[in-house]
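Question (not urgent): is this output format expected?
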Amino acid sequence: MKTYDMTKREARLFILRKQGLTGDYKFIGKQGVLGYIKQVGCIQYDPIDVCGKNSELVLQSRIKGFTKDMLYELLYEDRKLIDYFDKNLAIMPIEDWIYFNRIRDMYKKGGRGREQINNVSDDIKRMISEKGALCSKDIDFNEKINWYWSDAKLSRAALESLYFRGDLIVHHKKGTIKYYALSEDYIPKNLLEAKEPFPNELEHMKWRVLRRISAVGLMWNRPSDAWLNIANMKSKERNIIFEQLIEENKIHRINIEGLKHAFYCLAEDESIIDEVKSGIEFKSRMEFIAPLDGMLWDRKLINEIFDFQYKWEIYTPIEERKYGYYVLPVLYNDRFIARIEMISDRKNKVLAVKNIWFEDGVKLSKALQKELNQCYNRFMNFHDLTDIEFIENNRI
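Got this back:
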């Protein structure tokens, strides 16, 4: 087993270089979007749009020249990306469809309202075949069904269930409304008919653990939200997986000065280790980071390495919030220096900054203000906004 010693700063730089979040932009344009998503496996999707949807926010911080149209085109026109489950609902390369047969099989064998949905599934697929992509409002099955999040119309539950099973894909979206089409019409036949790459459950878990390590940059062998939705992986399986990955020389151990737990990176990332340990100074850079960014999936790990405690308070009662409803961490070079709450007012083309909270010890110098202004301008361009206003001490 190869082992490397790092300072905290070197560990931070390692993660940020892997993520493309420090120095010159590593990922550029549509090809950069594909390259980044291929590297991390998936980006988490969330429909809430206060200052951009989570998936868009992840990409705007890393992809030079990123526009929202790029992601939409790659998903629903070029069909190089697809919506499906990985780390919760996610966006992944279309080629990765083959690795999630076991999830689709699980929904085919079970799931809520199975009998009611099976009774109408052929009718729904026939309607889509005849009319093209449809949303739940286009299908007149109004019977109520006990669904995962709340009671729902049978038409919606059936569409979602057929999507979970892999019979349908998300063809496109209008706002948050999903339109579904037949998978066989849009997923290449070789992917639809591909055999399970890892029929052995442990081998499948190993593939997913490597995928999550790559998504965060560094991971540890501890309980973590970064492992969510890796079915059947408990501590026993996780220990076996790490032992085997070490034996197979697929991961290397990282000891970080002052921290008691061992961390691990992909063996293929040795060049990044060499780079950060060489003492190279990287170009100064500031970015607004998405709340469900893959780098932040393990909040305890981020607190250990970056000395930054972050909680997404969107589901916290307003009277219990320390900061705000939809707050983004502010990354400057290798540190999180602040958190910010903003609203994209598309109607008036204004970026409304509700508040910014600087971390202890951070002073707003002229140089820091200049970097922040440049970051505001990039964020406004990302949203196609023309003005900015500052509103202090308000809450959504």
